Amino acid sequence: MSRFLIVLGIAIVLIGLAWPWLSKLGLGRLPGDIVIRRENFSFYFPVVTGLLVSIVLSALVWLLRR
């Protein structure tokens, strides 16, 4: 369990450091992501981005377990 938490922490730090480059890929602004903006309210639900990230991570885990 402790090894998992250490790896998770390192992964979060690496993603945080790479975020300026990752944001240029267009993730979070894909067609299908729900964005509602009102005067005093903003709602964002990244449906397609979440599906895409899930598919990529599932494929990566599947390849690593093989």
Descriptive notes:
This protein is α+β, with helices and mostly antiparallel strands. Helix content is 61%, strand content 12%. The chain has helices spanning 2-22, 47-65, and strands spanning 34-37, 42-45. A two-stranded antiparallel ribbon has the order 1-2. Strand 1 and strand 2 form a beta hairpin. The model has no long low-confidence stretch (mean pLDDT 88).
The gross shape turns out to be extended
Reading the helices and strands in chain order gives HEEH
How many domains would you count in the coordinates?
1
Query: What's the multimeric state?
Result: single chain
The assigned structural class equals alpha+beta
Number of strands: 2
Compact description:
This protein is an alpha+beta fold and 66 residues long. 61% of the residues lie in helices and 12% in strands.
How would you describe this structure in keywords?
61% helix, alpha+beta, extended, 66 residues, two-stranded antiparallel ribbon
Element layout with pairings:
Layout: H1 2-22, E1 34-37, E2 42-45, H2 47-65
Antiparallel strand pairs: 1-2
